[in-house]
Structure formats: C-alpha cells, structure tokens
Amino acid sequence: MNILEEIFKESFTFLFILFVFALIIDKILLILRSIFMFQDYHLKWYIYWTKKAYYLRYKFEKILHQFYDVDPRMTPSIFFYHRNKFLQSQRNYTGTIPILSGDLVRFATLKSYEMIISIILGVFFAYAFKVDLLKIWEKTVLQFSGWNIDHDIWLCYLISGIILGIGAAVLRSFRTTIE
Amino acid sequence: MNPSVIETTILVRLLATILGLAFVVEIIHMLFMKFVQPIIIGVVREKVPKISVLKNIFYEIQDLIHYSKFSDEVETEAEKFREEMSEIINKLNKEIDPVKRMKIFQTVSDIENYSFSENYPMSTILVQPAASYNHYQTLRAIVAHLLGFSIAIIVVHSFSFSIINEILKYYINSSVPLWVDYLMTGLIIGGGSGSAHLLIYYIKKWRVPKNLRKDIFNKDDFLVDTILKKTTEKMSMIHDGTTDKWIKITYNGGVDIENLEFIHHRKKDPNMIIYHHTGIINCCTFDDIVRVVKDSRDPRGNWMKTAYHCVVLTDGSIHPFCRWDRYGKHAAGYNRYSLGLAFHGNFETDPHAPNSNINRIFGPIRPSDAQLKSGAQVVVLWTFLYNIKVDFKNSIIPHKEISSKTCPGNSFPYDDFMKYVEYYQRHWEKSPEIRERIEEFKLKPFIYTS
To 5 degrees, how large is the angle CA B157–CA B158–CA B162? Predict the structure, then answer.
C-alpha cells in the first residue's frame, strides 16, 4: 500500500478517535460547569471570587511597588500578560485604570480547573478503553525512532490521555469561537 | 496494514451517523425545551419575597440611615474643626519658633484630612466585584444539558447505535459492556447536538436577507428605533442648544442616583460653589475618575460614595457626578451648603506641593479653553438655579481658599475663569431665550432639596 495513503488513514483514525473522546470529555465538562454555576448561585460563591480578586490586587500592588518610579502611564503595560486574564476590558468600560474583575478571576480559575479535569478524564478514558493513540503511528512514523511502545504501555496511555484532554480543550475553544 | 488503523469508509459512516443522530436529538431537545422552559420560569419566579429577603432589605435600609447620621456627624465635626483651624492658623502666624510652627502645621493638615484628598495613588488597581449568576440561566443550563443527554441515550438505544464498541472492534478488537457504550454514545451525540443547534440557528438566521428580515421580524423594534431617533434629535435641539451660548449638559441625577437616596441629605439648597482640580492623570476618562473616587476611603475607613457635583474634562465635556440635591465630599466643613466643580487634570506646579505636576506627568499644567468655558457655564447655571451671588471672594471660591491645600493649583488661570463666569452671567441674564431654558431646567428632578 502506498505510504502516503497509509499515513492519511492513520491521521484520519487518530483525528476521529480524538474527536469522539474530546466530545465525551467536553460534554461531561459542560454538565459539571452547569452544576458548578448552579451551586455558585445558591451558595453565593461570588463573595469568595470578589475576595480572591482583592487578594490578587494585593499581590499585584506588591509587584507594582517595584515599579513605583516608572511612569504611571506604563502601568497597564506592566499588566499586559494578565490583561486578558483578570483585567476588565468589557462592559463598555472606556477608562485606562487597570480594573481587576472578580468575574474574570472566576472565569480564569474555572478554565484552569477544567483543563486539569479534562486531562484526568482523558487519562482515565485512555486507560479504561485501552486507547493508545501512539499505536496508530507505530508502523509508519514511530518505526524509525526505535522505541518499543509495548514496553512503555503506561507512558503511552498517559500521553494519549493528555492528548485527549488537550483535544477537548481545543474543541471547546473552537466551539466557543464559533458561538 | 497497521491493525490499529480503521478503514476510512467506516469512519465516514460513523461520522455521518453521529451527525444525523445529533440533528434528531437536537430537534427533539428543542421541542422538549419549549415545554420545559415555562416550568423553569415558574420555579424561578418568586411571587412573595421570603422573610429572610425582607429582613435583608430592612437591614440595608437601617445601615443606610445609620450611615446618613454618621455622615452628618462627620460633617458637623468637620465644621467645628474648621473653626478651630482658623484659630490655629492665627496662632501659626504669630508663632516664631520653627519646631512649634511645624507641630501646629501638622495639626492643620490632620484636620484637613477629613475632606476628600486629591492626592490619588498612581498605581491603584481597582476591583470590580464578581456578579452572582442568574437563577433562571443556571437552572436552564442544567436542565438543558441533562435533557439533551437523556434524549440522546434514548435515541441511541432505540437505534441500537454503539459507537465505542464499533471503534474498539476495528481498533483493538475488544468491547465494553453495552450500557457503558450507550452512555458514552449518548454523551457524544448529546455533545454533538450543541453544534447541530448552532448550525440550525445559523440556517434560521441567514435564510432571509438582512434588510428584509428587519422589516418582517423586527417591525415594532424598527418603529421604536425611528421614534426614538426622532425624539433624540428633537431633544438635542432643545437641550444641547441651537446656539453655542447655552450649556451642553445632560443632567439626570448624575452617577448612582439610588445610592444617595437615603444619605448625604442637605438641610437647605447650596449657597456656595467651590472649584477644584481632580489631581488625576489627564489621560483618564470620567469612568476612571468615578472609579478612583469610589475606591477611596475617608480617614475613618468608610468608602467614598461620591465627591464632586460636576467634572469638566479637557475637551470641555461636562459630566454630572454627585446628585445636586445631595452634598458631596469635596471640601471639609463646607460640603453641606456647597456645590463642587472639578476641572480634570493637575494644575499644581510648585515642586514643594504634594502631588505636584512639575514634570507634567499628569498632563497639561493649564486647563484648556473649552474646559474653562464649560466650567464657567456650569457655575453660571448653578448661580441661576440656586440664586447664588457671583462673588469671587465669598460664594464662588477655589478649594485652596478654605483649606491648606493648593487645589486647583498655582497654574490655574483664575482671572480667565472669573472673566468667563462674568461674561456668561451678563449674557444669560440679558437673553430671554436662555432664561426660559433655565426655567425649564429648574423643573428637572434631583436639583432641589424639597
């Protein structure tokens, strides 16, 4: 069989399995998120997120203290890294003063937890259903590496699980972009 | 051939089945949601507030009344301090010993701390509190997800479609229990139905050309838009002035009207106007000024609710801030019977003064002409509204006259500002058209104490 055709089939299988398990993980995370939101409303967790935002402000101001002599107009650029994460740029705010949003702190924390949970689920599914994504490439791409996959099957499941978890995150970001 | 590789035809068939079933699930899901949605609304709607909610409202009002009393106490105290301060300043002028003079000076500045300081921290990061989620939306999300998932499992079961076993059969030649497979396939189809929902939504949205759609579906909205547009044009003709002589101001109570409902009451209408500079970096917007003020605390640790009654930005735009029928915290001891006008920027260039703009780090050291004119117009409007006499020694004064501060700065063009005020005062007094507009303005809410 033509090697290119073989690689195409392998890629297609790889992507298909990734897509299927990413969909499962994504749906589980969606259900978990909706339960979290429901609890957040009932247990008034927004107070916790506001407190967390104040704590972060304290931490940032400590960092800013080191830049005390810098031109104050430069302050937003010091926070450039955190701008999309925590600093408010929504709700028609036209100002220039950095505003740490409690909502964005909650969102960023949730996002990181979602990533961790999706990787854990990925590893779990990879182990439970014996999904070894590396095995697909065994005969073509990995044959030159001299790596015997069967000897490190745990490592293969772990890598496959991480790929599935990250794949779910990619699928989620793709879906939210379309939305 | 690699045994782990699945034939492309099988994968395409599986994909097509997933997509088809996702559409089926989505349509059933949409149908069910139509019935479920009114039930959710019924659950969420609380017709009679619970006792705990009423209690909370009662405590909030109690707090507000307490705060109002407390503000009055602080203000009375500040008035006493003002009298004490004049005595101390007299003493200071007579004292020769530098050590004693320093001590007396410290006492003066301690008293002055009771007013809202213009020395803003430059690196302040403000915090916007997290909002609570909406009860209806959270409940709806849970119900929608679980309903979609359940429908998908039923559909998968009735079609006997098990995707995991199908994959594993070709992939590693193994299988999982059928119920696990239905559960997983249900999740896949349920997850995929979200994408199907999006697709259906876009097809629905774009099937009619945009311009036609507006006429057909949003006929009422279109009419409302047209009426609003016409009304706004008409209003702007009246209030923004057909000539450039009338003030360009939109006063509807300023910022946070409700928050000042129970607090900062005046006993009588103001009889004095005090003008300031904001002391904030010039590139900040009005939003910034409001946020900086609200993020500040007075020396007793209470959050500042409001400060100036009007802020004039460099481009001459006028932004009402505090309600005019309430007092703002801008000049200690004088708040209850004065109005505060702030020119945005920092016009202090004395290197010995705190928060000085010597390096022009806060922007220009002089207010723009447009800013001065707008400020003068606000002052003249207030003089007409509250019958305040145009007297630059007693009733229209800079903040520095009544405090140890330098506000609004040594580079502020006091003479020019006074000339503008006198010009508008003369002009408006003679113009019957503008007098009529002032009379109209007097009818607006949130202007007078009673």
Answer: 40
If 0-12 CB within 10 Å is exposed, 13-18 middle and 19+ buried, where does residue B335 land? buried
- Indicate yes or no: CB of A57 within 8 angstroms of CB of B285: no
> Is A2 an interface residue toward B (CB < 8 Å)?
no
Residue B299 preceded by cis peptide, ω within 30: no
CB atoms within 10 A of CB A2: 7
Q: Which residues, 6+ apart, have CB-to-CB distance to B64 below 8 Å? A: B261, B262, B263
Where does chain B hold its CATH 3.40.80.10 domain(s)? Answer: 258-442
- List the 143-172 stretch of A: residues with Cβ below 8 A of B: none
Among candidates B420, B386, B268, which has minimal Cα distance to B337? B268
CATH assignment of B258-442, among 2.70.70.10, 3.40.80.10, 1.25.40.10, 3.90.1170.50: 3.40.80.10
Contact between A53 and B128 using a beta-carbon 8 Å cutoff = yes
Domain limits of chain A?
3-178
* Chain A contact present for B174, CB below 8 A: yes
Contacts 24+ apart (CB under 8 A), B211-217: none
Per-residue confidence (pLDDT) for residue B219, from 0 to 100: 46
Is the pTM higher than 0.80? no
Amino acid at B36: V
Low-confidence ranges of chain B (pLDDT < 50): 1, 114, 120-123, 212-224, 227-228, 230-243
